[in-house]
Amino acid sequence: MRLLPLRFTAAGRLATRPRARVALTGVLLATSLVAAACGGSSGGGGSSGSGTTKADSALLGPAKAATGTPVKIGWIGTGRTQAVDASAEEKSAQAAADYANAHLGGLRGHPIEIVSCEDKSVPADAQACGNTFVREKVSAVAGGSPGQADPWIKIVSPAGIPTVLNLVATQTALSTKNVFLLGNPLGPFGTAAAYAREAKLSSAVVLVIDVPAASGPAKALSPIFFANAGSKATVIAIPPGTADMTPQIQTAQKDKPALYHVTGDPTFCASAIKAIKALGIKATITALDRCVGTDKGASIPGGFEGVKIMGQANQDPTTAEYKLFSAVIDAYGKGLKTADAYTVSGYQGMLGLIRAVNAVPGTDVTPAGVTTAIKTAPATPYPIGGGATFQCNGKASPVSPNICSTTGFVADASKTGTLSNFRTIDATGIYKLGAN
C-alpha cells in the first residue's frame, strides 16, 4: 500500500479550499502507515486477541438466508505483493458476506456474490479492476484499505457504481461523487489530539518517520488538529532506520512537552519510545496501534507498559461487536486470525456496506438503489466499533462529505503490547480545517 504527499501552498501551508469542506491530496491510511513506510505487515496491530478464534456460534443470530436473485458486489484488495501480504482482507470480506447471506438475508434479501479483484499496488492492475467491475455490472464496490484506489474509482464512478471503503483518503476518494469512507482516515493524528484535549495536555511533540507519505501529512495536519484541541504541537520528522533518537528527543524536551505521539512502523516506534524512556521523561506517550509489531516491544525497556495506543477498531473481547467478529471469523473465516489488521479492515469494509444498505427498507439493489440507501441510512453501528457509529449523509466530517465517521479508539498497552480498556475518544471539533 502506498501513501501520497499532501499538496502545499507556496508558503508551505496545507492547500485547502476557501470553505470548510476541503479535499486533501494525500492518503492518511491509519491501517497502512506501516505498509507505506517499511513494506507492511500482516500481523501485529496490537490486538487484544491472538490467533484463530473459537467463538460461540449462537452469536451469529438466527438463520435468515437470502432468497432473492443474486447481487454482485465488487471487492478491491491489494492481495499479496513483495512488500505486503494483504490477502486476509479479501478472505474476511468474503466471511462477512457469507455471514450476511446466512443470517442477515444478504443485501436487502439478495444473496451477495463477490467479484474480487487485486490491484497489487499497481495502477494498471487497479485500472483493470475498474473495467472488470463495470463489465460484471456490480451494484457497488467495497474495500478495506486498497493500495491503489484512484484508477478504478475514476472508472466505476462515471458508470454510476457507488464505492464503500474502510480507510482510504486519496484526493479522488475524498472528492468523487458517491464514494463513502466508513472509518476515519485522519485518525493517526486527530485521535491523539483528541486524547490530549481529554487529558488536558497543553503541549505535544509528534515524532513521525521521515518519509513524504507520513511526515508531509503530520506536518500539515498535526498542528491544526492539536490547536483545535487547545494544545500546541511540534512535529519532528526522523529518518527511517535511526537506531538512537536520543539527540532528537533531547532537543524536543527543551520545551517540556506533556505528550509524545509516535507515528511510524514498529522499528521506528520502538526506537522512539526507547529513547523517551531512557531519558527518564515522564510525559504521556501515545502511539498508533501499528507500532506494536511481532517482537511485542522486546527491544523497549519496560515494553509498551504505560503507552496509550490509538486504533481504528475496538478489539475489547468483551464487547458485543468483537464477539460477533470472532464468531463470524470462526464460522466463515477459514483459519483467519482476528489479530490480523487486514482481517479487521476487510470485515469492516464489507459488513459496513451491508449494514448501511440493510438499514433502509427496500429491495432495490441496483447501483442507484444502493447509493440512495447508503446516503439515507441512519447512524449505523461501525463493525468492531464497540458501539461507535458511522453515517454517510455528508455531515460527519468537515474535511470531506465522503467521510462517514470521526471515530477513533484509545487503549492501554501491557508490556508486550496486549491492549485493554478500549474506549471511543470524543473527537468533536478536532477535524476542522481553516481556510486559506
Which helices and strands, and how do they pair?
Layout: H1 33-38, E1 71-77, H2 87-103, E2 112-118, H3 123-135, E3 140-143, H4 150-156, E4 163-165, H5 171-175, E5 179-181, H6 187-198, E6 203-209, H7 212-228, E7 232-238, H8 246-253, E8 259-263, H9 266-278, E9 284-288, E10 308-311, H10 320-332, H11 341-358, H12 367-376, E11 380-381, E12 389-390, E13 409-413, E14 419-424
Parallel strand pairs: 1-2, 1-3, 3-4, 4-5, 6-7, 6-8, 8-9, 9-10
Antiparallel strand pairs: 10-13, 11-12, 13-14
Helix pairs in contact: 2-10, 2-11, 3-4, 6-7, 11-12
Task: Tell me the radius of gyration.
Answer: 21 Å
What is the CATH superfamily of the largest domain? Response regulator
H/E order of the elements? HEHEHEHEHEHEHEHEHEEHHHEEEE
User: Number of helical runs?
Assistant: 12
Helicity range of the residues? Answer: 25-40%
What is the β-strand count? Answer: 14
Distance between the termini: 31 Å
- Broad CATH class of the largest domain: Alpha Beta
CATH topology of the largest domain: Rossmann fold
Averaged pLDDT: 85
Judging from the principal axes of the Cα atoms, what is the shape? globular
Structural class: alpha/beta
Q: Mind summarizing the main beta sheet?
A: 7 strands, mixed
CATH architecture of the largest domain: 3-Layer(aba) Sandwich
Number of domains: 2
Verbal overview:
The chain has 436 residues and is α/β, with parallel strands linked by helices. It folds into two domains: 232 residues, 3-Layer(aba) Sandwich (Rossmann fold); 134 residues, Rossmann fold. Helices cover 32% and strands 15% of the residues. It has twelve helices and 14 strands. A seven-stranded mixed beta sheet has the order 7-6-8-9-10-13-14, sandwiched between helices. Strands 2-1-3-4-5 form a five-stranded parallel beta sheet. It has a two-stranded antiparallel sheet with strand order 11-12. Helix 6 runs parallel beside helix 7. The N terminus is likely disordered.
